[in-house]
Amino acid sequence: MPTQQEDNALDWVYKICTISFAIYGGIVGLFTILTYFKKPEDIGLNKRMNILSRRITVLDHKTELRNERTGRVEDRMLKIEDRMKEENEEMKRGREEWKKEKEKMNEKRKRERE
Q1: What is the pLDDT of residues 72-105, one digit of tens each?
Q2: I need a labelling partner for 98 at 20 to 30 A (CA). Which of 2, 13, 60, 81 fits?
Q3: Which intervals of the chain are annotated as region Disordered (predicted)?
């Protein structure tokens, strides 16, 4: 059990800590409120330019992402078209080869008949 003197000392420590935190919180809150409610004219030109450039870079980044998405779709479509063209060419080659083989077989049959 703390003595009366120790109890008083702890009370003073708590009071000092509470008061110092209250003062610190008040200063931070006041500073935050003052900077939050500043008019744009009060902000320096450099700071305004920085804010604008940040907004522009964010917009640029968003449009780049959008372009990437549409570009990916276009790339997929082009790849599909290329694949379809290749398959059509292979089918044409296959038909031509089949026709040639059929003609050869017909010629062999004719020879065998004769």
Answers
A1: 666 777 787 888 888 888 888 888 888 888 898 9
A2: 81
A3: 85-114
- The answer to whether residues 10 and 2 touch, using CB atoms and an 8 Å cutoff, is yes
CA-CA distance, 32 to 35, in Å (whole number)?
5
Q: How many residues does the chain have?
A: 114
Calpha distance 43→31 (Å, rounded) = 15
Residue 3 near residue 11, CB atoms below 8 Å = no
pTM, 2 dp = 0.33
d(CA 88, CA 32): 69
The two structure tokens encoding residue 25: 């919180």
Distance, in Å, from the CA atom of 78 to the CA atom of 74, rounded to the nearest integer, reads: 6
How far apart, in whole angstroms, are the C-alpha atoms of residue 33 and residue 53? 25
Q: Is the dihedral of CA 33, 34, 39, 43 positive or negative?
A: negative
pLDDT band at 45 (very low <50, low <70, confident <90, very high): low
Tell me the two tokens of residue 93. 């080659």
Q: Supply 69's token pair.
A: 């998405």
